[in-house]
Design brief:
about 500 residues; alpha/beta; Rossmann fold; UDP-N-acetylmuramoyl-L-alanine:D-glutamate ligase; Protein-Tyrosine Phosphatase, Chain A; 3 domains; six-stranded mixed beta sheet; 20 strands; globular
Amino acid sequence: MTGASARDLDALRSWHADWRGLRVAVLGLSVTGFSVADTLAELGADVLVVSEGADPEYARLLPVIGARLWTGPLASVPEELVEFAPEVVVASPGFAPHHPVIAWTQASGIALWGDIELAWRVRDKVLRADGTPAEWVLITGTNGKTTTTQLTAEMLVAGGLRAVPVGNIGTPVLDAVRDPSGFDVFVVELSSHQLWYLSLQSDLSPYASVCLNLADDHLEWHGSAQAYRDAKAVVYANARVACIYNKADVATREMVEDADVIEGCRAIGFDLGVPGPSDLGVVDGILVDRAFLAERHTSALELTTVTDLAARGLAAPHIVANILAASALARSLDVEPAAIAAALAEFRLDAHRIEVVAVAAGVTWVDDSKATNPHAAASSLAAFPGAVWVVGGLLKGVDIAPLVAARGDGVKAAIVIGAARDEITQAFGRHAPAIPVFEVDDAQTEDVMAQVVELAAGIARDGDVVLLAPAAASFDQFASYADRGNRFAAAVKDWIERG
């Protein structure tokens, strides 16, 4: 047999290895699945893409690049996949561990990778000037991943490095690996799904890593809170220079303590308090670094101030924490404080992240539709105490009662939407019975936010905030969290225009 076999996959750890003829099944044909198929086809592998559905453009391109496509129900393992007899299966991150095809793959002893594993193996396609591949910086956490990934990349670029944000943020790592212009650093946002696949088998060794925080999420995918935590902890495995953790979240510190890292790797903490000699933190309203300087026992380096951040809408406590985490990653790569400050001066949060969509009649309307789990919503509520809280959607197997118990008494009123209305109203009844609770019933998607805004406008008074921080996924009533936020903003604008 020519090409690779299942017995010599360890030899396939370079773009320049012999991938010819390797039979690979690619599960899923989203942007990630196509990047995997395209890469493997370029390497000369025999590629079969298996997907329940296919974007027409991707389906048209597959035969052009030399890959085949099978589409159909995946409630059981397709006979076409069995007959193909793959030596490797590369799964898109949407495929949960209990999916029938994943279970079959593992039971059959077939190598199971995610796109991140493949990207790590072929990362040497384009080298830096010194003849080495780009460094990898890894970012995960229940919340704040995308903001921190964007911040880190912009800080590195401001420091003169060719850096690009990739991974769960939207651009597949494989697309960046194959970019002929090359990069110095890949800033890789990783979901717990991607990390679970890395946990199966990988020698990925990042330059630096961070887990921003940990709270229950995606339990229906992982099966338990412990499995979710274990997946997140993979981010620190084999780190070489810095494991950055959240001092305010003991779970992240324990992940670092338990991690197998490369000798000499440092643990660097961050939080909103006064930092110790290996930490980043805040002193008298100044964000400082006491980790990456020789005189760290007696001195600190100023990065920016809370006042400067507030002027750009970046002073919410959870955003300041993200900034400190990104700064730690950038400082680990020797980016100067002045470059970090310059990057922050230009940075803006993405839409639907504590975004003020209107101020009218003294009421501030805030879209934090990206708060798709209780942990994220808790951060929003801490940033806007006393808000009229718009909450609800799909809870993804997570109990919202602890959030209501912790934060419910601090809101002016709650407006409850979506599939989990009963769970949320019952939680208020138990834990915050004095708070007025209003429900928007099973209205059509186009009517939900109009009803929300009418209710909120009747409750809010001069100086109040109406906060969309759903603590839940959007797919029960909306196409995405962005669709949910856009409909909220449009309904607010319509209400204002009607006077």
